[in-house]
Design brief:
The chain has 10 helices and 8 strands. The protein is about 40% helix and about 15% strand. Helix 6 (about 140-150) packs across helix 7.
């Protein structure tokens, strides 16, 4: 199939570095892969951990969605959107605005109306409790990362991944999700939405597979599919075996994307 342009959207606690493997694999096939970080989160994770950017706590879903909408607006044709975790929610919000040729949401935080599972509530408690105490920015601990994010990895590997990827995240998107804010809402019955694929992980403790099933079932318009990977945790896009996830996302997206996506040469 001809080359396409992909816009990859990361989730909380990480930045664009988490997409390095996907980006290299897809660029080797001739695709253009854009990986802008959330506002204020460009840079080396260890540096950002030591010096969280001023203003990061004010970044919420509206600012993140606007950030990526501006990237899309600068392209000559709609890209394929791929997001993970909160990035998967951003993909759904962008598609609801009529942006993107197709979307793949990997273990996504769901839009308004889908309640969190008890396990998800436990995983997100440190962020939300910190917000209640006035902490607008949160860094996930190594213990929480190993327990809720990369729980299928040996502790030594999880700690190494924490050092490589984890950085400060604004608490505001978590507050908006917990409060079922209008910033998290989509029109479930929109018939002209670009095709959407949801991935769920059977061992995901941050966004459980049941939440992703409910997310899929809530849609009543357009093409929306769900694919489950029983042995995958939330760190699925960078954990061992990520190739299966990357290839499944790529194959479905190229098959279902609307119209011609941006050739690699024209986006350089």
């Amino acid at each position: 199939m001809p080359p396409s342009t992909f816009l990859l959207i990361h989730g909380a606690f990480v930045n664009a570095r988490c997409w390095d493997s996907f980006r290299g694999r897809w660029e080797a096939l001739g695709h253009t892969v854009l990986c802008p970080s959330w506002p204020l989160l460009d840079g080396e994770p260890s540096v950002l951990r030591a010096n969280p950017p001023a203003g990061l706590g004010a970044v919420g879903l509206d600012e993140i969605v606007a950030h990526y909408a501006a990237v899309i607006a600068a392209l000559p044709a709609p890209p394929i959107l791929v997001g993970h975790s909160f990035g998967g929610l951003v993909v759904q919000l962008l598609l609801d605005k009529g942006l993107g040729a197709a979307g793949v949401a990997i273990h996504p935080a769901p839009p308004r109306g889908i309640p969190p599972s008890m396990r998800t509530a436990i995983s997100n408690f440190p962020v939300l409790s910190g917000a209640l105490l006035g902490r607008a920015v949160h860094v996930m601990s190594k213990e929480s990362f190993a327990d809720s994010f990369a729980n299928t990895l040996p502790v030594e590997e999880a700690n190494a991944a924490w050092e490589r990827y984890v950085l400060p995240t604004p608490a505001r998107p978590f507050i908006q999700a917990a409060a079922f804010s209008a910033s998290t809402a989509v029109r479930w019955d929109r018939p002209d939405r670009a095709p959407l694929l949801l991935f769920a992980g059977g061992r995901d403790r941050s966004v459980t597979a049941g939440m992703n099933r409910s997310n899929k079932a809530a849609y009543r318009g357009g093409t929306v599919e769900l694919r489950e990977f029983p042995e995958r945790d939330h760190f699925t896009i960078a954990a061992p075996g990520w190739e299966e996830i990357a290839d499944a996302a790529l194959g479905w997206a190229l098959e279902h994307a609307r119209g011609a996506s941006v050739p690699a040469a024209s986006a350089s």
